[in-house]
């Protein structure tokens, strides 16, 4: 069974190199966010302040490499390299699901990173949290000396995956039990978090979430590509663009909860997208696919280039809106085009 899990993780890393994992009909709608150009910025590029704070930790830029991998030697190298780059850039970093470690502690080196990004997250699925309990989650945090743990929600992926979870009860209670004991961020994995769920999480004590909306990596599609039965293949095809577009999730979550810390992710593909996410109300913009692809195709140098390029574009966008910092960027009021406008209005009802 564990070999299966290792094999699955390995397949995931290969499959996400394929363009089909970002289905054509899927769109995070960041292109509907038009940042308003300011011809007289009255700012120097060096005067733009990208620094922020997430879960009590200072970040040099409002960016996060969200959890992806672990459990194999190849995954370990990705974690070590990307954590080192996150440390260098002063941004947040998360390892991938640590479920396998609960039964195979000898795989710890594939999750443990020597570098210290300013904010490091462990990772576990909400259903494993239900089954294995708070202590198991706390142990995972301790094992890699993380600052907190990301609890991921991935019902759509599980339903497509042969042998995946079919029972999603008890997750909110399990999260509520964990929250008093650890720094928790609750994250989706590409289908988005609606305002109703934001409210449930707030009531459960959660103070940080990653909306991980639709429009980037599609996990139903990844499972469709792995599927061996016609049923799974068909369901994966149908659900490959399932979810709430990332830009709509961010705006609606911010509207629903002024105080929740929000990581905006799902289909962020440039520093400009990151600026749009922040203008919509995200505290931090997160991404997974672009940096792991860069790493797998061109090693550390290519991943570093991706990260530096994102930071440069983010800074340029701030300056061109005349925004010294994130508060000013939000105040510069982006113009929201259709269909994002209708999505945001619909979610608010
Ligand atoms: C190769 C890969 C593996 C992933 N594995 C996990 C995981 O183990 N746990 C998790 O919470 N999210 C996982 N994700 C989801 C990402 O953290 C993110 O939420 C999602 O991919 C959307 O962001 P993107 O469009 O920038 O890729 C994974 C993503 C990728 C690309």
Separation of termini? 45 Å
CATH homology-level superfamily: Aldolase class I
Strand content: 5-15%
| Relative helix content | 40-55%
Q: What molecules are bound to this protein?
A: flavin mononucleotide
Count of discrete alpha- or pi-helical segments spanning 4 or more residues: 15
The CATH architecture assignment turns out to be Alpha-Beta Barrel
Note the run of SSEs as H and E.
HEEEEHEHEHHEHHEHEHHHEHEHHEH
* Rg of Cα set: 19 Å
**What value does the average pLDDT take?**
97
How many beta-strand elements?
12
Output the structural class. alpha/beta
Question: Largest beta sheet, briefly?
Answer: 8 strands, parallel, barrel
Describe the structure.
The chain has 15 helices and twelve strands. The protein is an alpha/beta fold and 349 residues long. The protein has an eight-stranded parallel β-barrel, surrounded by six helices. A two-stranded antiparallel ribbon has the order 1-12. The longest helix is centred in the last third of the chain and has 32 residues. It starts with a helix and ends with a helix. The mean pLDDT is 97. The site of flavin mononucleotide has 26 residues, from helix 1, strand 7 and helix 13.
């Amino acid at each position: 069974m564990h070999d299966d899990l290792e094999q699955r993780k390995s397949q995931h890393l290969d499959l996400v190199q394929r363009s089909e994992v970002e289905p054509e009909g899927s769109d995070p709608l960041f292109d509907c966010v038009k940042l308003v150009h300011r011809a007289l910025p009255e700012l120097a590029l060096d005067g733009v302040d990208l620094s922020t704070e997430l879960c009590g930790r200072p970040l040099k830029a409002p960016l996060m490499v969200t959890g992806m991998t672990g459990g194999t030697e190849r995954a370990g190298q990705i974690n070590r390299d990307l954590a080192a780059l996150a440390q260098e850039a002063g941004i947040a970093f998360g390892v991938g699901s640590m479920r396998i470690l609960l039964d195979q502690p000898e795989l710890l080196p594939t999750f443990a990173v020597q570098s210290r990004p300013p904010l490091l997250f462990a990772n576990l699925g909400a259903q494993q949290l239900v089954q294995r309990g708070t202590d198991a989650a706390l142990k995972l945090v301790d094992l890699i000396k993380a600052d907190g743990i990301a609890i991921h929600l991935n019902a759509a992926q599980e339903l497509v995956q042969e042998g995946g979870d079919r029972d999603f009860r008890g997750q909110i209670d399990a999260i509520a039990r964990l929250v008093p004991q650890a720094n928790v961020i609750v994250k989706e994995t590409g289908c988005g978090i609606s305002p109703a769920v934001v409210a449930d999480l707030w009531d459960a004590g959660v103070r940080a979430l990653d909306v991980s909306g639709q429009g980037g990596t599609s996990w139903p599609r990844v499972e469709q590509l792995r599927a061996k039965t016609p049923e799974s293949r068909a369901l994966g095809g149908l659900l490959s663009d399932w979810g709430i577009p990332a830009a709509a999730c961010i705006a609606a979550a911010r509207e629903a909860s002024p105080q929740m810390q929000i990581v905006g992710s799902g289909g962020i593909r440039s520093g400009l997208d990151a600026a749009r996410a922040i203008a919509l109300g995200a505290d931090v913009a997160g991404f997974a696919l672009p940096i792991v692809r860069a790493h797998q195709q061109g090693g550390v140098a290519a991943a570093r280039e991706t990260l530096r390029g994102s930071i440069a574009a983010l800074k340029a966008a701030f300056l061109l809106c005349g925004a010294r910092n994130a508060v000013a960027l939000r105040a510069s009021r982006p113009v929201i085009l259709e269909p994002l406008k209708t999505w945001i209005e619909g979610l608010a009802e």
